[in-house]
Task: structure prediction
Amino acid sequence: MSDIEEQEKQTKQKQKEANENFIKLADIFIAQANAECENADHQLVNASLLYASARFSSFITASMSETKESFEENVDGAIEFYTEEFNKMLKEHMKQYGSAFDKK
Result:
C-alpha cells in the first residue's frame, strides 16, 4: 500500500470515528430532551434546545475570535453557516419522519 493510500485509509477511519462520535453526542442530547419531556411540555423542551444551540453557537463563534472586531466581522457568516446547517439537518429529518408515516 502506498503512502497516499495509507493516508486516505487513515483519513476515512478518522472521519468514520468523528461521525460515530457526532451521532453518539447527539443521541445524548436527544435522550436528555426526551427525559425532560416527561416533566415539561414538548414545545418548551424544543424551544429550550433551540435557545441552547443558539447560545452555544454564539459562544463558539466568540471563542474562535481573537478580538471583538474579528467577532463582529464573522457574525453574519457564522449566522449564515449555522442557519444553513440547521436547515439541511431539519429537512433531512423531516424527510425521514415523512417516510416513517408511509410505512405505517
Summary: The chain has two domains: 1-39, 41-104.
